[in-house]
Amino acid sequence: MDFLRPETLAEALELKASRPDAVPIAGGTDVMVELNFDHRRPAALLDLTRIAELREWTDGLRVGSGVPYVRIIDELGSQLPGLAMAARTVGSPQIRNRGTVGGNLGAASPAGDTHPVLLASDAVIEVASVRGTRMIPAADFYLGVKRNALEPDELIVAVHLAPAKGPQQFSKVGTRNAMVIAVCSFAISLFPAENRVGAAVGSAAPTPRRAHEAEEFLASELDFSSPQPLLDSVKRRFGELVSEAASPIDDVRGSAAYRKHALAVMARRTLGWAWQELLSQKNGGGERTCA
Amino acid sequence: MRVNVRVNGEQRQADDVWEGESLLFMLRERLGLPGSKNACEQGECGSCTVYLDNVPVCACLVAAGQAQDREVRTVEGLADGDALDPVQEAFVEAGAVQCGFCTPGLVVAAHDLLDRVPSPSDPEIREALAGNLCRCTGYEKILDAVRLAASRR
Ligand SMILES: Cc1cc2nc3c(=O)[nH]c(=O)nc-3n(C[C@H](O)[C@H](O)[C@H](O)COP(=O)(O)OP(=O)(O)OC[C@H]3O[C@@H](n4cnc5c(N)ncnc54)[C@H](O)[C@@H]3O)c2cc1C
Ligand code: FES
Ligand code: FES
């Protein structure tokens, strides 16, 4: 096995072009588990942790693929509240100190916690190779269980996502509060200026996916310019539509029926929280209601 | 391959390191530092927690080659000669150690918490130690130890 240690992105892309069999390693929190258990014996590891360009962000926002979760939580939480919420639920402090969004995207597990947020907030994934750069909308990035749109010579460089234009929420069901793979998860982003809602489910289909009908339903039902308290019927219908967007399976973590049920509950609750935030922004106050 | 790394303040060199090997294996088997424990090799238990450039990580999930030119501090590097670190002392006094297998990782995680948050609340302690499993103590004495260490700072 070779251990490749590029110092710059350009060098990394050259290496990946000449060694498409090299497995990139960022935080290593997925890759090392596979190596430790001999599930994978790649011909080479391509260490991305020395590449400064991948570990920074610029305004707008363009977040380098190698920024660890802990920095998203501590330093980007006010601009990217949804992503920070999802990041807070990943693993444990040790995992969040090391794990990255780029690694979550590289692994492309249907249960990856950042995916629903990236979908709901219209993120675009920047990938590059020596052939050039591609900008891939998150909705086109996930192709199947643990399969993404990367070509063998490409690396994930950054995630582009605008600072939140309205309230965002993320919710995840697991057996405890720490160190759990999602049984299912849900993210919602409100875009009040555009009369629009983004909604996506995780761990409830072969890929993370958007709940289009649920999004359209809310866009037609909700008045973003003078928001009124939510009707229970709207919350309920939204929950149903989110649940219908999923096609979960029975597995060790939960049954399909449970996942469908939990998704409807999470969708109702997160919509309630997000809407309450919007109401209090617009009306300068207001109580928090239960789902 | 050869890996050069600063460990507990000393420049060290490990030879014949397998490219897919973890930092944990290198520390324990090549650099003579068995303090960090190997209990799961999958990031679940925290027994292998070490500082990498001052950030606590699971050494089992870092490739040894990723530590090249970096600074590692293990549980062996916390004491000052024979004088235990206050966190280690508090673990002994509070009875937070039974079989001791989880202890090195918990001591490093607690040490980091108290560096960042000198008087943590109970929820902050629980959150900071959420990545460390202990199958003996039931955790109460561990929380006592962290509170004790915090009170002495
Ligand atoms: C104990 C434990 C708990 C966990 N809990 C959670 C959890 O709660 N939620 C969750 O979503 N995940 C969880 N994970 C999985 C993992 O931590 C995440 O998927 C994390 O985001 C991976 O990031 P990384 O930088 O460590 O990835 P790596 O392990 O370095 O890489 C992961 C994959 O992505 C590829 N890759 C990495 N960077 C790039 C890049 N820039 N370009 C192209 N390919 C790339 C790698 O080749 C590999 O296939 C957990 C893992 C462990 C060990
Ligand atoms: S041995 Fe590293 S976390 Fe368990
Ligand atoms: S003291 Fe035995 S595992 Fe914690």
From TrEMBL, chain A:
Gene3D superfamilies: 3.30.465.10, CO dehydrogenase flavoprotein, C-terminal domain, Uridine Diphospho-n-acetylenolpyruvylglucosamine Reductase, domain 2. It comes from the Bacteria. Residues 1-166 form the FAD-binding PCMH-type domain. Coiled coil: none annotated. The keyword Oxidoreductase applies. InterPro entries: CO_DH_flav_C, CO_DH_flav_C_dom_sf, Diverse_Substr_Oxidored, FAD-bd_PCMH, FAD-bd_PCMH-like_sf, FAD-bd_PCMH_sub1, FAD-bd_PCMH_sub2, Mopterin_DH_FAD-bd. Pfam families: CO_deh_flav_C (PF03450), FAD_binding_5 (PF00941). SMART domains: CO_deh_flav_C. Keywords: FAD, Flavoprotein, Oxidoreductase. The keyword DNA damage does not apply. PANTHER family: XANTHINE DEHYDROGENASE SUBUNIT C-RELATED. This is CO/xanthine dehydrogenase FAD-binding subunit. The lineage of its organism: Bacteria, Bacillati, Actinomycetota, Actinomycetes, Pseudonocardiales.
UniProtKB/TrEMBL annotation, chain B:
Keywords: 2Fe-2S, Iron, Iron-sulfur, Metal-binding, Oxidoreductase. It comes from the Bacteria. The keyword Metal-binding applies. The keyword Transmembrane does not apply. GO terms for molecular function: 2 iron, 2 sulfur cluster binding; metal ion binding; oxidoreductase activity. Pfam families: Fer2 (PF00111), Fer2_2 (PF01799). This is Carbon-monoxide dehydrogenase small subunit. The lineage of its organism: Bacteria, Bacillati, Actinomycetota, Actinomycetes, Pseudonocardiales.
